[in-house]
């Protein structure tokens, strides 16, 4: 049994039908980040922010995990698999993965918009949070449990030991452009087997010891899954 650590980004869920962040025609193209995904945006116009994430939650609830999520979950039958995802969707969990660390939060959860936001997470029933109706125990309106641009990434330090101890490290569907998350790949042990799956892989900034699969998540994971399985 080996320890496999998967570091996933928006491209992981693209074939499930969820828009990525930077690709053209992405949902984000129609929005300015600073108007929907920053603490300043929440201060200036919380309804707009709430509405944006309500829409995204609806989108996520309407899709299902794709075969790439499923293959990663199936690896647990033979290996220890830890997923560190930048995604706020829960498609890894719904595919059956049991250890998923969300660096940027989980849109199915809410937290306080007050000063102690990381104290408690509240499951959201249905797809919407309402400013006038949904409050935290401390009296503040609930906000989505997502890390906005400019906010700290509380999970960052917690996941480093997993990356340091990975024997197989799979980076999949991330442009490695969003920091500090992208910096995590540098904690990987030099002796680990490193794999990169992304249609744009050849232009991504990783070290030269990665085996590169310039493919979409499903096609890439099929190859990697079979390669890992053949060794058993
Ligand atoms: P990104 O949008 O910056 O990069 C997406 C990457 O996925 C690109 O490198 C692209 O080449 C690749 N890609 C596109 N289609 C693919 C496919 N079918 N298979 C595999 N790869 C594919 O995404 P990022 O690096 O994750 O950073 C964006 C930030 O936005 C993240 O922090 C994340 O929190 C957030 N985000 C999350 C979701 C989600 O939860 N599903 C969606 C959009 C954005």
Task: Provide a short characterization of the protein structure.
This protein has helices at residues 11-14, 33-36, 39-44, 46-61, 67-74, 91-95, 156-164, 217-230, and strands at 3-8, 80-85, 100-102, 105-112, 122-123, 142-146, 168-172, 193-197, 210-213.
Structural class designation: alpha/beta
Given as residue ranges, the uncertain stretches (5+ residues, pLDDT < 50) are: none
> How far apart lie the N and C ends?
9 Å
Mean pLDDT: 94
H/E topology pattern: EHHHHHEHEEEEHEEEH
The spatial strand order of the largest sheet comes to 3-2-1-7-8-9
Tell the overall outline: globular
Number of strands: 9
Taking Cα atoms only, what radius of gyration do you get, to the nearest Å? 18 Å
Bound molecules: nicotinamide-adenine-dinucleotide
- List the total number of helices: 8
Largest sheet: 6 strands, parallel
Proportion of β residues? 15-25%
Q: What is the helix fraction of residues, given as a range?
A: 25-40%
């Amino acid at each position: 049994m080996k320890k496999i650590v998967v570091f996933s980004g928006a491209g992981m869920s693209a074939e499930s039908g969820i828009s990525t962040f930077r690709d053209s025609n992405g949902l984000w193209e129609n929005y300015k980040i600073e108007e929907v995904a920053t603490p300043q945006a929440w201060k200036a116009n919380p309804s707009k922010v709430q509405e944006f994430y309500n829409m995204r939650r609806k989108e996520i609830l309407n899709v299902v995990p794709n075969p790439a999520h499923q293959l990663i979950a199936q690896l647990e039958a033979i290996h220890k698999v830890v997923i560190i995802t930048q995604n706020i969707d829960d498609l890894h969990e719904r595919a059956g993965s049991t250890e998923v660390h969300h660096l940027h939060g989980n849109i199915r959860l809410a937290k306080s918009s007050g000063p102690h936001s990381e104290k408690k997470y509240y499951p959201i029933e249905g797809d919407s949070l309402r400013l006038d109706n949904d409050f935290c125990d401390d009296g503040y309106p609930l906000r989505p449990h997502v890390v906005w641009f400019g906010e700290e990434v509380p999970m960052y330090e917690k996941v480093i030991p997993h990356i340091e101890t990975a024997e197989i490290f799979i980076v999949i569907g991330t442009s490695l452009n969003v920091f500090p998350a992208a910096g995590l790949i540098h904690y990987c042990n030099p002796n680990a087997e490193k794999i990169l799956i992304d249609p744009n892989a050849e232009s991504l900034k990783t070290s030269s010891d990665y085996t590169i699969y310039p493919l979409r998540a499903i096609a890439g994971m099929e190859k990697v899954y079979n390669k890992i399985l053949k060794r058993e």
